[in-house]
Structures are given as C-alpha cells and as structure tokens.
Amino acid sequence: MTAPAGRAPTERADAARNRLRVLEAARRLLAADGFTELSLDAVAKEAGVGVGTVYRRFHNRPGLVYALIEDNETRFQEAFTRHCADGAPSAHDRLRAFLHGMAELVDDNRELLLLAEASAPAGRYRSAPFRRHHEQIAGMVTELAPGADAAYLADLLLMAYTPGLFDFQRTERGWDVDRIKGGLDVLIDGIGAAEEADRRLSHQ
C-alpha cells in the first residue's frame, strides 16, 4: 500500500529519525570513550534502538565510521553555504573561511579520518568529499587568481588536511589549529599576491 499523496511513508521518517539518533549516540560514545570502545552494539544501546536496526543500516563499524564522516561533511557544507550567503564575501574571504572550516572539521574528526586513511590509504583521493572539496577550492582559486593553475593549487592546499600529517602536527609537533590556519592564510595571500604581481607585469 502506498502512502497518501503529499505524505512521506512512515517507515522512511522513522528510518531518518533512527539514523540521526544512532549518529548522535556514536558521537557521544566517541567523545566519552574514543574509537577503540565503539561498537555497533554499544551504539544501539546508547541510541535506544534495536541492534538489528543499526546493523541493517550501517552493516559494520567501518560503515558507521563513513556515515559519521559524511554527516559531518554535510554539516560543514551547510555552514559554508550560510557564510557565502552572508554579505557576498570575496573569493579571498570565501577561500579563507573554507580552509579554516576544513581545519576545524579535520581536527574534530581526526580519529575517524585516521581510521579511514588506515583502511584505504589512497581512498581519500577518490572519495566524494575530496572531489567536492577539490572542485570548490579550484573554483575559488580561479576567481582569486585567474592565471594560476587552480587544479594543482587545490591539490596542494588539500594536502594540509591529510589525516596522518594533520594528526602529526597536532600531536607530535604540538601545533594548535590556529597555527595551521595561519599557515593556510599565508598560502592564500601568496596566491593572491602572485596574481597581482603578474597583473602589474602584464601592464608594464
């Protein structure tokens, strides 16, 4: 039997609610106990849903990990969209906000991203979020510096978020996120300055 026109099926709404409950429960457990203690059984108990519901939706722990990463990516993109709609910021300001937001996103999800990197070291470069980030950054770089190799520069900027490197900087080097953001600002300013220098030379 189909649902009446204009109404989503009850099962679909319940599934969406359960998915949110499971992801929020997983975040709470990660914050409290770290990834090593995360299990689908524990998440189901924390979320107040049946274990079968969690297994049917996510299949295994890696499936839950990637769902958390994708959900965090969605939140990041929504926040960036709101920023872009607020006062129509310049390409420089949008790129800066994007890269700063990425630094916070990676820092908040280091355990998850390190696990994903360990399971498929080169998988990051083929993932939908990486392709999306590359396209967005390349577009902003093109707007900021039309004469630059935007595709290469997007790759270069995204290297800053390689989970293993980012974690090394945070733990072994002891750098805080503001220091990483500051380094990214220098790169952004350098891209803009190089474009301006080229423009001056072309008009001499």
Automatic annotation (TrEMBL):
Superkingdom as given in the UniProt entry: Bacteria
Matches recorded under Pfam families: TetR_N
Keyword field contains Transcription: yes
DNA-binding region(s) from the entry: 39-58
Record key words, sorted: DNA-binding, Transcription, Transcription regulation
Coiled coil segments of this chain: none
InterPro entries the UniProt entry points to: Homeodomain-like_sf, HTH-type_TetR-like_transc_reg, HTH_TetR, Tet_transcr_reg_TetR-rel_C_sf
All residue ranges annotated as the HTH tetR-type domain in the record: 16-76
Protein name: TetR/AcrR family transcriptional regulator
Source organism of this protein record: Streptomyces flavofungini
Upper taxonomic lineage: Bacteria, Bacillati, Actinomycetota, Actinomycetes, Kitasatosporales
